Amino acid sequence: MIGVFDSGIGGLTVVQALRERLPGHDIVYLGDTARTPYGSKSAATIVNYSLNNTDFLRRQGARRIVIACNTASSYAFAAVRDHFDGPVFEVIGPGARLALQRSRWGRVGVIGTRATVASGVYPRTFQALQPQAKVYAAACPLLVPLVEEGWIRKPETAMIVRKYLHPLKVKKIDTLILGCTHYPVLRQVIQRKIGARVVLVDSAAAVAEQVRDHLAAIPEGEARGEGGGRLKIFVTDTADQFRKTARLILKQPVTIEQADL
Fold first, then answer.
1. Mean pLDDT over residues 105-110, rounded?
2. Annotated binding-site residue? 182
């Protein structure tokens, strides 16, 4: 079983990407809706929340953990990796590598939460992968709550996206990393506002491909689907809007359970 956690609903974009690539695997998802957003929290708090989430997923039977949150990946990956007794995946590295593959001129933009941008994790990652790449980051703190509220097609959301993307447009980026797993929900408006020539990189899809490649490289008994592709979704605080947006992301009705951390 694959365990996936995020600060809220955005990590379901990772779940959907995993289901498309690994339809035979059971997935358990935890959305920490009671404590979202993580992007405004301290590093110590983000680590603590991430370890809580990991322990919950372990109790549900998860044998692999996907940190489907750029903020938690930025601050808590090492702690979760040391804490958990199985493979742990994060969304920063896969997204950066995919961006380099798709970038024409090595001018990459990143949008993320305040905490992700402040961590400097993307510039450090690109420095290690391709030092000559130009990386420009912009914090977009309002986008997570807009997605959580289901304001996907509101004109106000389009105006906010346009304002956040303007500093990156003037840098003439050719590739833009959606550096928060909530952001693929806003993919259409982001593409319109950044321009058709800019390639969008979805970190959710990138980490899903990494998990698929990991499973393909291990013995057949491990890589085989476990249990028929069942999905369980837990949240730490129930909300009707979560269910509506989850249905939009997963393209099917969903059953949501309350998590006891």
1. 96
2. yes
